[in-house]
Description:
The complex is a heterodimer of chains A (261) and B (308).
Chain A: E1 8-19, E2 22-28, E3 31-33, E4 37-41, H1 48-55, E5 65-73, E6 76-77, H2 85-91, E7 92-95, H3 106-116, H4 123-133, H5 137-140, H6 153-166, E8 171-175, H7 183-196, E9 201-205, H8 209-215, E10 218-224, E11 232-239, H9 240-245, H10 250-256
Helix pairs in contact in A: 3-4, 3-6, 4-6, 6-7
Chain B: H1 3-9, H2 19-55, H3 61-66, E1 70-71, E2 76-77, H4 80-111, H5 114-129, H6 132-151, H7 160-184, H8 188-196, H9 201-212, H10 214-230, H11 233-238, H12 256-265, H13 273-303
Antiparallel strand pairs in B: 1-2
Amino acid sequence: MQNNQPEIAIETKNLFIFYGSFAAVSEVNIKIEKQKVTAIIGPSGCGKSTLLRAFNRMNDFVPSSYVTGEILLQGQNLYSKNIDPVEVRRKIGMVFQKPNPFPKSIYENISWGAKINGFKGNMDELVEQSLRGAALWDEVKDKLKKSAYELSGGQQQRLCIARTIAIQPEIILMDEPASALDPISTLRIEELMQELKQNYTIIIVTHNMQQAARVSDYTAMMMLEKDGSRSGTVIEFSETKRIFTNPKDKRTEDYVTGRFG
Amino acid sequence: MTYIASKMNQLDLSKKFRPGESLIQALLFLAGFLSIFITLAIVYELGKEAWLFFGNPDVTFAKFFGTTTWQPGIGHFGIWPLVTSTLITSLIAMVVSLPLGLAVALYLSEYASPKARSALKPILEILAGIPTVVYGYFALLFMTPLLQKIFGEGVGVYNMASAGIVMGIMILPLISSMSEDALSAVPRALREGAYAMGATKFETSIQVVLPAALSGIGAALIIGISRAVGETMIVAIAAGSGPNFTFNPFKAAETMTGHIARISGGDLSYNSIDYTSLFAIALMLFLVTLVLNLVSQAVINRFRQRYE
């Protein structure tokens, strides 16, 4: 481990996320390793999604929100003044809790993102590649012109993953991507994540601890601060195996063993 | 015996008489029926009088649809001058109100800060509350001189362009508020999906939100067209008083509604050809509105995109 220094995809330094005067997330220092799946777990309302959305500046759309500290992508602070959030989101894609394909055809769902990102190559090829990458090609290859809304929920979610990989981001954020899906669709998404991590860095928020244990290499355990401020923070961050078998923090142990949460 | 005890004795699942339910159901049915009845009654009345008009030996369908002079008093029965001026003023009104109304709606729903929105919306509502007679004189006394200043001598004192533009301003609040409702109803998740792909605000608004709101915007378009075709006061004041077959928007020409208002205001003897001709025009107006509505509906169905 020591002589084989892991490559870091993105890291936070002393990160605080505020809504108005309320610090929803405080003092987060984590390093996300490249081409690994990192899970963020913790009880409801502890700021998991807020932290995830800070990585691609989606919190910008909440009018009163702001950030202190740094999130570093290849040495650049995503929150410094000269950074364009649109460019950030082109490098850090996101898959949401509820599948949200665009009201366009399956083909256009993939091609739209590439087009607005200035893609000039062979679009048919890109669409096929992306759909294959999301393990959806065989199911939809005969109905690319059909509306995305004709697909099942699980297929829609894989379509959302396909459109995200079509713009070839560095990192893919997933906000409980399987929580609205049935167990079989969930399994397919989980298998897909294992394939995707060969090319992408994945950060996933999940409520489901078994899922975190199954899919992730590293786990960040979030919890509200003990001081009663209702502010969430990462209380423990390490290899998933360690979090689930030998956690350092008593609160982590209680949570992962189901004693509360 | 107490309530609880009586409950325990017997399970009663038999049908109950609920007079309130039946009453409400009857009232709602009556309301629905009434609107259909009124529509049918209007069509009947229009049709009856128009029948008399077309029953006149001087009137033929060939003349009605085949000639371009409308002067029933002296035997000219060509409907086209009234129809074209109605279509031209309405087209001008839609050309003004649709893009402007959409732009306002997009600004209000996608770009405006809550502060700007709360300042702008009441102003738009004031615009919607202005009586049309005021709009009419606004067209005659402000818009026409303005057009004359810009386009010179060719612009008549009464002209279709001025009436059409002001009609567009009148319809603007209708289009913008209905379109804004449609845009705001687009789920937030769609916007987030677009932003997460690295779309700019403009790309998101125009390429994702707008198409998703198309059916609501289409409804605004249809109601706007109906308003424009049916609008009377503005065109009666500013567009001219006399049927004139022309496609030049700077010329005066009377619309169907303007003509009906002017003729019916004078001394008109019952069952004269002038009197029955008004019903023929009204029936025509009804058909034009119907056809425009059907066409817009078809266009919208063709292009709408469903979400959820």
